[in-house]
Design goal:
The structure holds three protein chains of three kinds. By secondary structure, chain A is of the alpha/beta class. Chain A is 33% helix and 28% strand. In chain A, the strands form three sheets. Chain A has a six-stranded mixed β-sheet, with helices on both faces. In chain A, helix 4 crosses helix 5. The relative contact order of chain A is 0.15. Helix content of chain B is 67%, strand content 1%. Chain B is built from ten helices and two strands; from the N terminus they run H-H-H-H-H-H-H-E-E-H-H-H. Chain B has a two-stranded antiparallel ribbon. The radius of gyration of chain B is 20 Å and the shape is globular. Chain C is globular and about 75 Å long. Chain C has a twelve-stranded mixed β-sheet, covered by helices on one side. Chain C has an eight-stranded antiparallel β-sheet with strand order 13-14-15-16-20-19-18-17, sandwiched between helices. The chains are: A alpha/beta, B mainly alpha, C alpha+beta. At the B-C interface, strand 2 and helix 10 of B face helix 1, strand 1, strand 2, strand 3 and strand 4 of C. Chain B: It holds the Pfam family ABC2_membrane_4. Chain B: This is ABC transporter permease. Chain B: Keywords: Membrane, Transmembrane, Transmembrane helix.
């Protein structure tokens, strides 16, 4: 669906995106993670033909960008860096204007229906005629999503879609995206919220200071590490019993090298030890990301040697 | 797309406020003149104002002379400056481009909408001031010896009412075309910056510079290139015979300005990174 | 590509004005003869006058001094010496001079006044009608004397037409005129552009030229447009202040001044007299006392200083000198009583010498 090769963008002497090979397959729910300023937004803008790459190639739906952006964009829905709207018009009027601006118009009736459906989908079906400037942040976010969904896109590119939504709203959007994905829409989601990506995505890419430092399926990332976490009141005894296999002990918690948690459990119980909790260790996405990325780009520390 | 842009413009409250102001100034002046009957001394004040006390038919010409130097260009610069920068400011620019609307198409539609605004503005000023003129000053010359309702041209010949209306229409269109150069400059600046105010102020700065240079004899060598050089040529419609020299040049100059700045706007906008 | 396009557009007018002009190859004396003989040639066009003679605004004289500074425009329809119309254009109106056989009318849009000038005043102030290229060229070339040098200039394009160039370099050391350049239409001899350069400078102090020129007989409705019915009309005997003044003064001026002979023709009418001296000619007008004082006051406000004039013999007076690169004017209040206005394209010393002779 999306493939880039050696994609680089410089702004003067600053390199915003460096040598990125992004690969998003059809039907993916791809999560692009990275701290603020890591180049996610610039990358997305390049994919959409808003920003021109310094070097490298982009292909979306098999067509080169930005040369043939016009053929690709009608099948792409996008929300980049927050929603946009004319503050003095209602949400419905905003969508109608946006709809009328581009190709594929159809009759007045189908256009009205299309706008109505998009609003319905994001939970703004019953919104009144108040101007957008009176909308809450969450309502604007929903309106932005509705604009992206207006033309049944085959590819949905969303930059921080749940910004400003409450937990229930976040959940609704997540369900909506899942449903769209089930119907065949490929989704590229940019976020700095790990949880959001962890919940939703099937594939994940991590950016750090302009580079794509990781790109893997979520299932691979979260495969068991070969360690088992055990919590037991008899931790001391267990440590003696499992001598050599215990990697780490912290109070009543043990980290044990074992291929199978069930087998370990049987062994502990057989020796009369009480097991309060036992589970195979999986790395969280947070650990993966933090291990790969440096400091946030909005943090400016003094160089180490300088001192106060 | 052009239709959409026009609808967008007409739904902006600001468009209506500026039209109201444009029509309001001649109305205000008419009210004062109508009450006091004190005409400005000959050769001073806006053109034609001294003549309208005797015949309101010419009031649209006086109204055009009033709004031409400042009000009209300011409103055109504001609308033109808002064209692209305003979309960037509301965040809609990227969504329009993603819709997708081609960048060239967007520019052309913006220029068309701007032209529409200029036309609406000059027509509104002309029609409203015609109504005001007739209502306040009447349509009959005060010095009429015979019953013929005549307006005197600048050359002292008589103009019948249809002739006056035709010349007013020509003057109105010429004033409208005169504004397109400013509009194109504002549109170009609007693609350079993301601030609508900055673009409008830039266009106005260009305008003021041009006005000052036009009044400076030392700068005579650049006069034919200045956008405001032929602005007052619409007055030549009221001479007998009509003096086409400056009118033709004015039209050509505005066409050149529009072509140059639209090309510059296109060159800049089509290759620019949209980061707003 | 865009840059090339813009460059092309900007270069167009420069290329157009640089189109080569052809010369008819006439000798300068022949050109002078043709210009002087072109008075009957019909033509019409648009004229631009550019002057840098900053004369102060003097009461009653602004019509004469106005076009001499800054840029002004005129339209001319010319069908012979007795049938023509000249419209002085401004952004708020126009002033038309209409000559039609025996009648002479002035229409002023801003004053909303249509005035018929009855009779033919012997003298009048110069006005816009004297500044068209044909009128100015003929007036100046009539002043050319044998010792002035005639040369041809490179032909130029004026109003889109090739024009033959001619330069008269003034020989008289008394005059402020350095040279007069005249470009004329080769087919009719009608002057298309005149530049007057003051002595010792290169930039013309006064330029008048056609922006548009057509050597054709103008339509009757353009030369003599029918005035609107119901215009406020009036009739006066004198077109301007000077021609009115001469009827109020009754002072006989000398027949010779600074070695210059009085011009014939004016002496019988009134006291105003012109003194012939080629480009160094000058004019003297005695002013009525009240108006004289008014003029002195206005000139003083404009920054001129009152200087005493004490010639070695005879009586003197006080004077004000108004100098421009080309024209110099002097207001002289003699101890004997009368005030004189002396004007000419001559050095100020010539004017003071003349004033000295007037006082004694």
């Amino acid at each position: 669906m999306i493939a880039t090769r050696g994609l680089t963008k410089r702004y003067g002497r600053v390199v915003a995106v460096r040598d990125v090979d992004l690969a998003v397959g059809e039907g993916d729910r791809y999560g692009l993670l990275g701290p603020n300023g890591s180049g996610k937004t610039t990358l997305v803008r390049m994919l959409l033909g808003l920003v021109f790459a310094t070097s490298g190639e982009i292909e979306v739906m098999g067509r080169p960008i930005p040369r043939r952006t016009g053929e690709v964009l009608p099948r792409v829905g996008a929300m980049v860096e927050g929603p946009g709207a004319y503050g003095h018009l209602s949400g419905r009027a905003n969508l109608a204007l946006l709809d009328a601006s581009g190709p594929g118009r159809g009759s007045r009736r189908t256009r009205r229906r299309r706008v109505g459906e998009a609003l319905e989908r994001v939970g703004l079906g019953g919104v009144d005629d108040r101007p957008v400037k009176a909308y809450s942040l969450g309502m604007r976010q929903r309106l932005g999503l509705a604009a992206a969904l207006l033309h049944d896109p085959a590819l949905l590119i969303l930059d921080e879609p749940t910004n400003g939504l409450d937990p229930r709203g976040i959940r609704e959007i997540r369900d909506l995206l899942r449903a769209l994905n089930d119907d065949g829409t490929t989704i590229l989601l940019c976020s700095h919220l790990l949880g959001e990506v962890e919940e939703l995505c099937t594939r994940v890419g991590v950016m750090d200071r302009g580079r794509l430092v990781l790109q893997r399926d979520m299932a691979d990332l979260r495969a068991p590490t070969g360690l088992v976490e055990v919590r037991t009141p008899d931790a001391a005894r267990a440590a003696v019993l499992l001598d050599g296999l215990v990697e780490h002990r912290d109070g009543d918690r043990l980290l044990v090298k074992a291929p199978d948690a069930a087998e370990l459990n049987t062994r502990l119980v057989a020796d009369g030890m009480r097991v309060a909790e036992i589970r195979p260790q999986r790395r969280t996405l947070e650990e993966v990301v933090l291990s790969l990325t440096g400091a946030s780009a909005d943090r400016f520390d003094r160089p180490a040697g300088e001192g106060a | 797309m052009i239709r959409t842009e026009l609808v967008k413009m007409l739904r902006r409250p600001r468009t209506w406020v500026s039209l109201l102001l444009l029509c309001g100034l001649p109305g205000l002046v008419a009210a004062f003149l109508g009450v006091t009957k004190v005409a400005p001394p000959a050769g001073q004040g806006p053109a034609f104002l001294a003549a309208v006390l005797s015949n309101g038919t010419l009031y649209p010409a006086a109204a055009l002379a009033m709004v031409l130097p400042l009000f009209l260009p300011v409103s055109v610069a504001v609308v033109g400056g808002d064209a692209v920068a305003g979309e960037a400011g509301s965040g809609m620019l990227r969504y329009l481009l993603l819709r997708p609307v081609g960048r060239t198409r967007l520019l052309v539609a913006k220029l068309a909408a701007l032209t529409g605004f200029v036309l609406v503005a000059v027509v509104a000023v002309t029609v409203s001031s015609y109504a005001v003129g007739i209502a306040v000053f009447g349509a009959k010359p005060a010095s009429a010896v015979t019953g013929a309702s005549l307006v005197t041209s600048m050359s002292g010949t008589g103009l019948t009412t249809p002739q006056v209306l035709l010349r007013l229409a020509c003057a109105m269109l010429y004033v409208g075309v005169s504004m397109l150069g400013v509009g194109a400059i504002a549109l170009f600046l609007s693609t350079v910056t993301d601030s609508p105010l900055g673009a409008a102020l830039g266009a106005l700065a260009a305008l003021v510079t041009s006005q000052i240079l036009v009044s400076l004899d030392a700068a005579a060598s650049v006069h034919p290139y200045l956008p405001t050089r032929y602005w007052l040529a619409w007055i030549d419609f009221f001479r007998a015979p009509v003096l086409w020299h400056d009118i033709g040049r004015g039209l050509a100059l505005q066409a050149v300005y529009v072509a140059v700045f639209l090309a510059a706007a296109w060159a800049n906008f089509a290759t620019r990174d949209i980061t707003a | 590509m865009v840059v090339a396009f813009v460059a092309l557009l900007c270069a167009t007018p420069i290329v157009l004005s640089a189109l080569p002009a052809s010369s008819s190859g006439l000798k300068p004396a022949e050109l002078v003869r043709r210009v002087l003989g072109s008075g009957a040639r019909a033509h019409e066009g648009l004229i631009e006058v550019t002057g840098s003679l900053g004369l102060p605004d003097l009461p009653g004289l602004d019509e004469a001094t106005g076009p001499l500074h800054g840029t002004s425009r005129m339209r001319s329809w010319y069908d012979g010496t007795r049938r023509w119309r000249l419209a002085e254009l401004s952004t708020t109106g126009e002033r038309d001079y209409l000559s039609n056989g025996d009648s002479f009318d002035i229409w002023d849009y801003e004053q909303n006044q249509y005035t018929r000038i009855a009779g033919h005043p012997a003298v009048r102030l110069p006005n816009a009608t004297d500044l068209t290229p044909p009128a100015l060229a003929r007036r100046l070339l009539k002043l050319v004397r044998a010792q002035d040098k005639l040369t041809t200039l490179k032909p130029r394009r004026v109003a889109g037409r090739s024009a033959d160039g001619l330069r008269v370099t003034a020989a008289d050391p008394d005059t402020t005129v350095g040279a007069v350049d005249v470009w004329s239409d080769p087919s009719t001899g009608v002057p298309l552009e005149v530049r007057v350069v003051s002595r010792g400078t290169a930039r013309p102090a006064l330029t008048t030229r056609f922006l548009e020129f057509a050597p054709k007989r103008p339509a009757a409705k353009d030369v003599a447009p029918r005035p609107a019915r119901g215009l406020p009309r009036g009739t006066v005997d004198a077109p301007d202040l000077l021609s009115r003044l001469v009827t109020f003064t009754n002072l006989r001026l000398p027949d010779r001044l600074t070695g210059r002979e009085a011009l014939p023709g004016t002496a019988s009418v009134a006291s105003i007299r012109g003194y012939a001296g080629g480009f160094g000619s000058l004019a003297v007008a005695p002013l009525p006392p009240r108006y004289g004082q008014q003029l002195v006051g206005a000139a003083q406000e404009a920054g001129a200083a009152l200087t005493p004039l004490r010639p070695p013999r005879g009586r003197g007076g006080e004077y004000l000198m108004l100098t421009t690169p080309l024209l110099n004017a002097m207001l002289f209040h003699s101890d004997a009583g009368p005030t004189f206005l002396l004007v000419g394209a001559v050095r100020p010393e010539v004017l003071t010498a003349a004033a000295g002779e007037l006082a004694s």
